[in-house]
Specification:
10 helices; about 15% strand; disordered C terminus; alpha+beta; 3-stranded mixed β-sheet; 3-stranded antiparallel β-sheet
Length: about 325
């Protein structure tokens, strides 16, 4: 059976519906509850691979989501979607060739790539709570470990190596008081309390590296900088398998004021980008099974990369003065 060709007016209506859904999801960040919902979703190991826009859509539709994938991806992972479950709708990119390309333009034509356009369409995905595991179901995320232990000591090495790519040295010294660590942007040096448990040292080093990636007290107020860095730390350590459930999710008071939406979107985009850089540095040491990674990488899981809602000034990864 042939599929009916969608008219331009129908496409425009779909795009408008998608824009409205994104706008509604972004507006949730203006309130502390919406902000916490997004941070909770972003901190889940199975959701970090989605774009910021799709994280917002997931948080709006199902704030308790922990691992989201498409119908076929769940089958590849050894799970089946329960009958009657309501899908979460996110946006996925689709490439479309212009008609003259389809009708036989030369493959060697230098303009062929230019005639391929990318659009976004709504696609259904489902959360872990909406599926049932089969006999050969693959593990979805690493086990959680307390900050008081030493289970994640192996993450200190890749974090130190990442600091080196930024031109920073990392040393472990006794630090009196409760500071835990500090970042000296002028001397390009990070110090971590050597008396803290190894898992806590990982948390401290992630925090100071977020400062090293450009979150300083010149570009932001002290309160804003600490909220950004604390949120990045919460997200990265949670996605690495550390138990941060008892920690408070920071948020900026007053985001509900008029004109705050653009600023909130920029903060969220900056947090997401910095967190991705640190998660990438730790990726080789994640404890998700290789089989799970293969299933996700096999093209079954929708991983659209929509443009962030706000400007991101840290995309280059180049450090500026830190706190």
């Amino acid at each position: 059976m042939c599929n009916r060709r969608i008219s331009e007016s129908e496409r425009a209506q779909r795009r408008e519906r998608d824009r409205q859904r994104l706008s509604q999801a972004a507006e949730q960040l203006l309130h502390s509850d919406g902000w916490r919902r997004w941070v909770t979703v972003r901190s889940k190991n199975g959701l970090a691979r989605y774009s910021l826009n799709n994280q917002l859509l997931i948080a709006l539709t199902r704030p308790d989501a922990t691992f989201v994938a498409g119908f076929r991806a769940w089958l590849d992972l050894g799970y089946r979607v329960n009958k009657g479950e309501k899908a979460i709708w996110i946006l996925a990119p689709i490439s479309v060739k212009d008609r003259d390309e389809v009708n036989g333009a030369s493959r060697h034509d230098s303009d062929a790539a230019a005639r391929t356009r990318t659009f976004f369409r709504a696609v259904p995905v489902f959360d872990r709570a909406q599926v049932t595991a089969g006999e050969k179901a693959l593990p979805l995320e690493p086990p959680r470990a307390p900050l008081t232990g030493d289970s994640h000591a192996h993450l200190l090495a890749p974090l130190r190596a990442f600091a080196g790519t930024l031109g920073y040295t990392v040393s472990f010294e006794e630090i009196p008081g409760e500071a835990g660590g500090w970042c000296d942007a002028r001397r390009r040096r990070i110090v971590v309390d050597t008396d803290a448990p190894m898992n806590a040292q990982v948390r401290i080093l992630v925090h100071e590296l977020a400062h090293a990636l450009g979150v300083d007290y010149q570009r932001y107020t002290r309160h804003q900088a600490e909220v950004i860095v604390d949120t990045v730390t919460y997200i990265v350590t949670a996605s690495a398998g550390l138990d941060v459930a008892g920690e408070t999710i920071p948020y900026i008071a007053g985001w509900g004021e008029d004109g705050a939406l653009e600023a909130v979107n920029k903060f969220a985009a900056t947090i997401d980008t910095i967190a991705r850089q640190l998660e990438t540095a730790l990726a080789a040491d994640q404890q998700v099974s290789p089989e799970t990674d293969d299933a996700i990488a096999g093209g079954r899981v929708e991983t659209p990369t929509c443009e962030p809602l706000g400007e991101d000034r840290f995309a280059s990864g180049k450090p500026v003065a830190g706190a």
